[in-house]
Design brief:
Number of helices: 4
Function: The globular domain of the protein is located near the polypeptide exit tunnel on the outside of the subunit, while an extended beta-hairpin is found that lines the wall of the exit tunnel in the center of the 70S ribosome.
Strand order of the largest sheet: 1-3-2
CATH class: Alpha Beta
Organism: Acetitomaculum ruminis DSM 5522
Strand content: 25-35%
GO molecular function, one term: structural constituent of ribosome
Order of helices and strands: HEHHHEE
Family: Belongs to the universal ribosomal protein uL22 family.
GO cellular component, one term: cytosolic large ribosomal subunit
CATH topology: Ribosomal Protein L22, Chain A
Number of domains: 1
CATH superfamily: Ribosomal protein L22/L17
Structural class: alpha+beta
């Protein structure tokens, strides 16, 4: 009646539902979500070579971080999935809110202002045309 141990059943179920598209994820990037999304919107839906060109000439700090992440996703596609880099395009790219570091800035007359240093998690999913 039983098909195996509970962990073995879960492992088989997770293998069946595993994502087959190549992707890369960066956790705890020291960029706010809004600033990362501005760059991600510029490359969404583009092919990989065009996206790399856009990122290399963008003056924003987030573009250098996302360029490194995109190169990682391309390497994952070539090595793990055996896909060609010429046929790849960015199917999904999004940033989600991470934890916030809360710091204190001393101000006049004994007051203290809070500074929130925001983080985000950036995901890039590629696919083949």
């Amino acid at each position: 009646m039983s098909r195996g141990h509970r962990s073995q059943i879960k492992r088989e179920r997770n293998e069946k539902n595993r994502e087959t598209r190549p992707f890369a994820k960066l956790s705890y990037a020291r960029i706010s979500v809004q600033k990362a999304c501005f760059v991600l919107d510029a490359i969404r839906g583009k092919d990989v070579n065009q996206a790399l060109a856009i990122l290399s000439y963008s003056p924003r700090y987030a573009s250098s971080v996302i360029e490194k992440l995109l190169k990682s996703a391309i390497a994952n596609a070539e090595n793990n999935n055996g896909l060609s880099a010429e046929n790849l395009y960015i199917e999904e790219c999004y940033a989600t809110q991470g934890p916030i570091m809360k710091r204190i800035q001393p101000r006049a007359q004994g007051r203290a202002y809070r500074i929130e240093k925001r983080m985000c998690h950036i995901n890039i999913v590629l696919n083949e045309r």
